[in-house]
Amino acid sequence: MQANDFSQLLEQLGSSERDAHRYRDNGSVVDLTYGELIADADRLARGMHRLGVRRGDRVGLVLHRPQDFVPAFLGCIRAGFIAVPLYPPLTLGQLASWAQTTGHMLATARASLLLADPPIAYTLRSLRDEVPSLREVVSMDELPEGGELPSGPVSDDQVAFLQFTSGSTAAPRGVRVTHGSLWANAHAIMVDGLHASPEDRGVSWLPLYHDMGLIGFVMSPLVTRTPVTFISTLDFLKRPEVWVKTLSEDRGTISFAPNFGYALTARRTTSTDGLDLSAVRVLGCGAEPIQPDAIHSFFERFSKVGLKQSAFLACYGLAETTLAVTFAAMEDELKLDQLEVESEASDDHASGVHRLEHRIPVVSCGRPLPRHRVSILGEHGERLPERRVGEVFVEGPSVTDGYWDDEEATSRVFLDGGVKTGDLGYMSKGELYVTGRLKDTIIVRGRNFDPTPIEVAAGRVDGVRTGNVAAFSISGDLTEKIVVVAESREGDPEAIESDIVRAVQRDVGLTASEVVLIEAGSLPKTTSGKLQRSATRDQYLDGTLGRVRRRTDVSAVA
């Protein structure tokens, strides 16, 4: 019998002896069949039930190892608990602020249980005094044995789990992912988008508290019984070459990563000896404007070990649509469009301010998945014609149920069965081109500009860390001023600043009024690696921007 929801599917998989997951962590390898995976999930669900968790209760998960997180999450799905994946602390120095944010999300979800890694569980036990709903904070090895596995009917409109947004432009909100939207999106990804089968193998280092890692590689592959190899995210960040080595050794066929993953792996892989990437048929990228330079450098680096250009797959998605919205065609290579933009130039003594035409490369994210529709909305909610930039609006069965305990934001963002994404883009010949975020728009002399081309231009400068540049505007004496904040590690700071100004002027036709160079790792980012431009701007304005190497007001010295 073919399952039509994850509750039925997990029940069926409980008796399967097919290979399900491989967990690679610091040299150790653990293989599980589907039957073993579901048995482990059921054991954890019974333990949570013995602690008083009931169907519909929220369970926070702070588990950094995939071999711990996956069965705990599936246990929640099996028992009808609503899982709340939360990101672990990235550094000890951020522990206090991380605990405060975690407490806020647990309070928003009104979680009754927090299941965490042993040292984290000990650190967060004080949250029981701050979060009224929170009854227990326990580690995996503190869960009691035995007990019953709760069961009951599941409907499409029931909440399966809460996916907190990344917080790139606003405070994280808990997206209500329903069983219906989860199944619809997983089926669309694996069957319609990837044409996947049990003969494929996924490989992922993506964090499982984020939608691309969780839905893309934990839930969706279950639909087509596609086995997956999981790499620890921390292991990847320490040794990015582990990604391509695992693809080679496990004959991986499907993997995804954001821009920085491609750039980091190409730069930090010292040798391609022994690698064989000929089995790879899909390497995807989405969730933010795709940076062609990062993709080209990766494929150029690994083409000599069998990686095919046709393996690249551009896509687009967001938490509010469960995950995926558009996919490029499987046979397509990276497709670029040249978007014409009108740029403000500097003052001209003869005719005042004049305008220059510039062409900005934008990547096609493909066509909407079946039963989904993408429209572009203007300032007043009107649908725009092709090649007009506006806000991306998505309709279809993958659209989620809104935000948990935030009806004001739900009514503002979710309209008539669709969702206003907050992303800027345009349609051309039925394909979506994403250009940036609405809230990150730079305004100069009353005109709107996307910061991404500015950041890409600055990122090409020698001495600047690619993908670690944020651009924004601030109020000036006569008009808005553009500020560029860039991470740099080496080189002459003064020369880097000058090169950034020239690169932005040459490539985009805009003048950066101020350049701020900061040390590596100082730029504010979300837990999924996205730039937090508004947070960078706030830190710039209040003087708390970390580890500044050099700060120069270009307009003052021009």
- Share of β-strand residues: 25-35%
Largest sheet: 5 strands, mixed
CATH class of the domain at 1-154: Alpha Beta
| Amino- and carboxy-terminal Cα gap | 73 Å
Number of helices: 16
Cα shape: globular
What does this structure look like?
With about 550 residues, the chain is of the alpha/beta class. Among the domains are: about 1-155, Rossmann fold (3-Layer(aba) Sandwich); about 345-440, Luciferase, Domain 3 (Luciferase, domain 3, Roll); about 440-555, GMP Synthetase, Chain A, domain 3 (2-Layer Sandwich), CATH 3.30.300. About 30% of the residues lie in helices and about 30% in strands. It has 16 helices and 28 strands. The strands form 8 sheets. The chain has a 5-stranded mixed sheet with strand order 11-12-13-14-17, covered by helices on one side. Strands 18, 19, 20, 21 and 22 form a 5-stranded antiparallel sheet that branches. Helix 13 packs across helix 14. The longest helix has 17 residues, at about 35-50. Mean pLDDT is about 90; it is low at about 345-355.
Q: Tags for this entry?
A:
558 residues; alpha/beta; Rossmann fold; Luciferase, domain 3; GMP Synthetase, Chain A, domain 3; five-stranded mixed β-sheet; five-stranded antiparallel β-sheet; 16 helices; 28 strands; 29% strand
